[in-house]
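Changelog-adjacent note: as of this version, every example in the card shows the full chain rather than a window. The one below runs 468 residues end to end.
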Amino acid sequence: MIKTSSGNFLSRNHRFTVQMGSDNVVIDLSDGDEANLDILQVSKWSSNDVSTWLCKIGYNEYSTSVTSSHDPINGERLLQLTGDNLQNSPFFIQDRNEREHLLTFIEKLRETELSQHIKTLDRKEINRPYFFNKTQTNGRVINGFPPGSGDETQDFTNVRTPLISGDDVLPPHMSNELYPSEKIKTAVGMCYLFTGFVTSVITLQFVHERVPNMEDEPPLPDVFFDIVPVRFEKAFNVCEVIGLLLTALALAVALFHRHRFIVLRRISFIVGTLYLYRSCTMYVTTLPVPGLHFKCAPKAHGKVSLMISRAFGLLIGGGLSVTGSHHLCGDYLFSGHTLILVVSYLFIYEYTPRRWWYIHWICWMLSCAGIFCILLAHDHYTVDVVVAYILTSRLFYTYHTLCNNQSLKDGGNSNLLARCWWFPMFRYFEGNVRSNGPLPRQYEWPFPWPKRFRSTVKTSRRSPVKGV
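Full-length structure tokens:
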């Protein structure tokens, strides 16, 4: 180290000029090696650091242009470069292979920066990255850290994640780290859904045998039936058509979602659990038919072959009346049609961009219309619909509350939600999803062809519909 007349110290990798008489002598204090760049803080690099890094990886021809251009390339801009940027100033790289080669090095820098960022958050017990900016605050944290923690001034401007959940989306190179696909877990979730549906179908075979005769046990009193005593015969068919439409739309949302495997896991777990709940409620309490219009199939009286045949028909027909597969009685408490209508809307609302508020309103009205049609058809008691809505919405909100709060994924005396019987399954499905808010509402073309369709949809304003 050399001390100058101004009191400053010059260390290695410093270069300056001294005038000795009529000659200028250049003194180079470096040892001939490249500068010792801090690859863990790439976003803080200056344009000179970027120039040094380019020389180090063999791109000496661009080391001068990144510092001398009208808009120098610093570390933050380096991490944001794309193939199109490399074709323009200050690089002007026209060769595609050369662009991809340089982008490979840049991508490694991004991965290093992301890993370091996640470690910092883990060390501070903050598992969701925020959009760090020295001027932004949400009133309780500054730059994602509590005031006074000593980390408020850290500037991770290259990490583009939202300060408020759902208002922005993660860039592609961060999504795979925070939201792993885990396809095997998705397959397990679908098996769980199928198991729940099969269990409800088998349970119905035994419940049907216990349904009292209409002559012995007339329909129970119901407030809605008193208000609307006239039955609308085709209303139930309308309900099933609406349910099929909302189900198809919810599945399309899951298929085109960028994190489709996570969404499908959540759909499978919630619907599968609800079918298990439904199996319990309709088995423990068998209600009489809600109307004298019902034409129940004859009882099997213990004939296993007939019960298996009926169960198989229900599985093939999806348990729908419009398919002609549902002739059994007793599956009233609670309403499976209400379950599907409510859960389809909730998933559509949760995983679509907030600027699609008109779609949310339409789906909400369709869901309400479908539920109303169930009652108009007198195919379910009002209590069947009410219990179905309560169980479906509460399970959906509870599960997603756990999903959206990283701290709740760990059990403990203070986390009462960890006492739910399905909490170990939740941790299995969601344990590796590092999220402290909703999934980024990003969409992409799910198929490898045609490539021109592989675009992303970003979110916008929040819908006025808050939930059913």
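Structural remarks: The chain has 15 helices and four strands.
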